[in-house]
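Question:
Write out your own:
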Amino acid sequence: MKKIIISILFTGILFCSCEKWIDPSMNVDPNNPTDVAMAQLVAPIEANLAYIVGGELARIDCAWMQQIAGLQSQSSENDLYIIGESDVTNAWSYNLYAPGMINTKILMNKAITTNSPHYSGVGKILMAYHLGVTTDLWGDIPYSDALKGDKNEFKPKYDTQEKIYTTIFTLLSEAITELASTSSVYSPDAEDMIYGGDLEKWKKTAYALKARYSLHLAKKNGASAYTDALTALSNAYKSNDDDFKFIFGSAYNNANPIYKSESKRAGYIAANSTYMNMLKAKNDPRKSVYFSGDIGSAAGENNVKAARIGLSYASATSPVYLISYTEIKFIEAEASFKTNDKTRAASAYNDGLKASLQREGAYGDGSWFNTQKESDATITLEKIMNQKYLSSFLQIESWTDWRRTGYPSLTKAVGAITSEIPRRLPYPDSERLYNGDNMPTGLTITSRVWWDIN
């Protein structure tokens, strides 16, 4: 009986005092933090964005734009415009939205609560970029009603592409103001793997993106799209040193996405004959930078002899260009040409070509460049867009340019399953299955997005 009483007393003491002698932190998983500092968010957001834009999306879009050719498996199917809902789920669900936009929203919210407008400005530029990529590839997308998983809201309504573009410009304008703030409790520093915390370069990037997205609306806004672009680019990049690019690391897990793709699936992608022939026609010195040989495979041909992507773009540490000084100069050239300033258009064209050659280490003594320069009497929109295309290797912006202008002139792939080259991506199966009531329906990959009117 005495033993039973002692046991009961001990048990009571155990239940009454367990909170005091058992450390509650023992149930906290150190590998799954519930909070993270702003400085720890920036680099992963940048890396994730560059990885999807310069990897999976580039392998699809740039195949359709006939810069590269798909030779095997899924890559050869993409060459023929065979693409299903599940083929884009990874990009949409596990890169652009999560962790991309979700982490960017966390960064923006933390910047507000800590009175750190410099971080907020960087966050808003990154959000604008995510939105621009997503809407240009799919059209209408969730945003204003999205990113609420922490509130158990998983079925967001879609914003129209027109509304998304308004949001993009608002974010960029706010970012410019916030980056100029003279009072910010915290500011980006070395953790920023693109600019190392250089706020002036972030401001230039905001203006550069304003110029890009203004130009996207040329079919909608007409002349004002070109004047808006020209106004913005006056405060944008001034040299290749300003490029918005992400440089990957030498360790495999930190490596460039094309390098990793080639490591796992060697021979799946190679040079497309359209791009190769345009380079060869003028003995373009960038050919040996972009590719390892001279042979290209026509879309749908599956020529296994086609040259592989060069090491400048397919090594572990190769950069991904998100927007560049070269692109800005070709935006200036196009906008100037369309506003009847052919002298400025020719000058910007020449600057863009020179910047591209210098960036690729292919300028040499300048003799080839001098044979390619244009004047106000020779410049044309086709020359501008074709040269921008050749200067934008593995950059998904080329697909947007083609949809806007029709340049370069492309012939659909042999054996293609559609009547024309695709103009948008299919929505992922995750949206149809879990957000089908809100997802737009009745669209195909040849349907046009809002700004891509006939």
Remarks:
- The longest strand covers residues 319-323.
- The two ends are 93 Å apart (CA to CA).
